């Protein structure tokens, strides 16, 4: 673990390169100002941009500073292997502890995400902890959101362990978690709310994995709303629960249903409920008086069932990532992804008026390429008797650790924007 932070300090120290870069940027700004000045004050048409003589490497450096898209790239081999193991981190839950339950292959832990235009920085736990000193972070969503939180706990475990204080807040400590890092006064919470909006069982046969539920699309789920106001960072997500049979309500009236087979009810697509759930969640955050946090949308996390559906013997036994030629973002996954990103963009615009920030953790396409990252039959569910194969959650360590590399990088860029 040490080697990661040492590497980072040796190679990426912010002080090593900053001066030449600063001088260069100032020079560049002066050149640009001169050009703009010339353009404004000359009767000639403005110079086409490509005629400005800036060498391509210099140009790439500016791009790197300004707008490298860290979410576009590819998985590359990483012989160094993962940040942690199930022995260096003792917080891996059985559901995600694939090595403990006999997963035979290890290659799935030996890939890193490489953005096309830049490097995704190595996760530096000390840097993360300093950034969040005295602050709090909540993961709002389903068990895949909690999966990201578990990854973060392990990424930080090389520096320090938190105290489990869940019992102080809830009796349902399997679903609602709180961890406190005393030495950094940092709190992490998982607020379980798989639909983000209020839901209740509607099936006459009781609750099961595919039973009918009522969804109140205009009412945010109190389970997270009553807790979230004081958090500084909120990572919000939702996904697979929207595939089940659902009756949609607005203003307490049934407006239709999804996959429900009720004769006289209007069939609405699953995207409708998904869109409204995010719209309601974002609107609720905007309207909370004391909420000053930064909200991140972590986008839809695809599952990879092959040889059958999730409830019909499907599994996920691949041991290597797909290339982007082998697997494209399209179909219902694309639709889910676009739906939620549209709602985020709208929230971002409206949030600005209140000084609230919304950000994107764009994980859909990168995870689409990782059919090898799921527990399959090498995880043990909370529900001991459930023999289903898990191609939804992600092994720890594994590709989900990348989400927290994105998270830290995005938080750092946000700090930088604040300073400038
Ligand atoms: C860690 O994984 C190994 C296999 O790599 C397994 O034998 C062991 O039981 C696991 N330990 C824990 C604490 O999960
Ligand atoms: C559907 O039909 C049943 C039986 O006729 C009725 O009780 C129910 O209110 C109807 N539901 C809707 C949404 O119209
Ligand atoms: C699992 O199955 C056994 C035997 O069928 C039963 O006694 C037990 O209560 C079940 N456990 C759960 C968590 O459902």
Describe it.
There is one protein chain. The chain is built from ten helices and 13 strands. The protein has a seven-stranded mixed β-sheet with strand order 4-5-6-3-9-12-13, sandwiched between helices. Strands 7-8-10-11 form a four-stranded mixed β-sheet. Strands 1-2 form a two-stranded antiparallel sheet. The chain is of the alpha/beta class and 420 residues long. The chain has two domains: 14-60; 74-419, no CATH class. It starts with a helix and ends with a helix. Residues 1-18 and 34-64 have low confidence and may be disordered. It is found in: Membrane.
Key phrases:
single chain; TBL_N; binds 2-acetamido-2-deoxy-beta-D-glucopyranose; 420 residues; 4-stranded mixed sheet; disordered N terminus; transmembrane helix; signal-anchor; TBL; 2 domains; 7-stranded mixed sheet; alpha/beta
List cofactors, ions and other ligands.
2-acetamido-2-deoxy-beta-D-glucopyranose
**Unreliable segments (pLDDT under 50, ≥5 consecutive)?**
1-18, 34-64
Helix content: 25-40%
Return Rg in Å: 23 Å
The largest beta-sheet arranges its strands as: 4-5-6-3-9-12-13
Q: What's the N-to-C terminus distance?
A: 33 Å
- Please state roughly what percent of the residues sit in beta strands, choosing from under 5%, 5-15%, 15-25%, 25-35%, 35-45% or over 45%: 15-25%
